[in-house]
Amino acid sequence: MAVRSQSARTGLSPAVAAQVVLGAGFLAHLVVVEVLFAGAGAGKNSVLTVAKFFALHAASIMMLQLVLVARLPWLDRRIGMDRLTVWHRWTGFTLAWTVLTHATLVVLGYAVLYSMPVTATFLSLAGVIASLLGMCAAAIILAMAVASLRYARRRMRYETWHALHIGLYLAVLLALIHQGLEGTTFASSPAARAYWWTVWTLVLLAFLTGRIVLPIWRNAHHRFRVAAVEPESDDVVSVYVTGRHLHRLDARAGQFFIWRFPTHNGWWQANPFSLSAAPDGRTLRLTAKAVGTTSAGLRRLPVGAPAFLEGPYGAFTALHRTREATLLIAGGVGITPIRAMLEESTGPAVVLYRVHSMDDAVLLRELQWLAGERGAQLHVLAGRTGSGNPPFAPFEPANLRGLVPDIADRDVYVCGPPAMTDAVLRSLRELGVPRGQVHAERFSLA
């Protein structure tokens, strides 16, 4: 098995560099917007002037929203889809408030301008096609913001929420038509108009390339198919996928794909699974626990069945290493990317594998073999938290330091259930492990 050469990073971290590029680009765009607005942003009265100000910034936030979920490889490998998705979520709430403010000011502004009641003004604007399209876009954005609130989101199936979320693409289309019909602050200047629509074109191209063009091209080029299906236990299965020219697929240990098996559960069913083995240029492997109908049915996949893969995604890789030595911490099925990273590891490594019982230790034999091959230490931490006397608490600061005395001199990679991950991160802070040496992968993308 070939092991990819890796070394500790020096200088500015890839994550910080990507954040600087993304933030600087967005701020530079806002500066241009502010300058152009100052020169040609006056509305028919002061209220409508402020409404135009919020309209331009709502459109700019919408551009940022699309970039954050465009799944551009350069950004994703450095920042990670989980973090980009969190930013997308909070930017979405900012967009909703900005759109609501713009719409409210438009109605109030025209009510003042024509000395009409607010309700009559609203109905009058709804009779204008450009305004009506803007209202529809705003309604979709606000409805999606409400559906994304934690209270509502936790009571909704992921598939339902995802289907509703696709409605935002309709909102973007309606908003673009609304801007074109209404005219923008930039309508008075050919150069400004060219700038505005050039930025929109680049944003849409980036989104379409990352979300549609790249996945279609990769699948047409590699022709993924199921090579083998191997049960690991009563409720865990590994699926091997092969294809053409996989050595050209720039995937790394620790990353994940969004997997579709159309003959298994329909085209619309897609699940993110981490690679459970380091890519070797011949096969890709996922290992899944039966927690739903999709993953439970994977063991019935026939060899040769087609697979559609989106990815690779994720920043949970050795690209972000700052030290030669690593500590790999996994909980439950979070062992899959950790196992792949151990396979790719070349420096001193310690693996902590948290499970409720030894029967739950998936891929344990492989881990033991890899640990022997790599000269790594493997500790399986089995038991119920709080059980026994003294209480079993393997991730308390003192216990972590006892297991890994030089923990502050290692890069720490953590992947597991949210409660475990949070507990580990708290202990790492107490132990003084520098933030730049801590890398955490979250299970959920939404």
Automatic annotation (TrEMBL):
Pfam families linked to this entry: Ferric_reduct (PF01794), NAD_binding_1 (PF00175)
Subcellular location: Membrane
CDD domains per the UniProt record, alphabetical: FNR_like_3
Required cofactor names: FAD
A single GO molecular function term of this UniProt record: flavin adenine dinucleotide binding
InterPro entries from the UniProt entry: FAD-bd_FR_type, Fe3_Rdtase_TM_dom, FNR_nucleotide-bd, MRET, OxRdtase_FAD/NAD-bd, Riboflavin_synthase-like_b-brl
Keyword Ligase: no
Membrane topology: Multi-pass membrane protein
Keywords associated with the record: 2Fe-2S, FAD, Flavoprotein, Iron, Iron-sulfur, Membrane, Metal-binding, Oxidoreductase, Transmembrane, Transmembrane helix
GO cellular component, one term: membrane
Domain of life of the native organism: Bacteria
PROSITE patterns noted in UniProt: FAD_FR
Keyword NAD part of the UniProt annotation: no
Ranges annotated as spanning the membrane: 12-33, 53-74, 95-116, 122-149, 161-181, 193-214
All residue ranges annotated as the FAD-binding FR-type domain in the record: 219-319
Name of this chain's protein: Putative ferric reductase
Species for this entry: Pseudonocardia hierapolitana
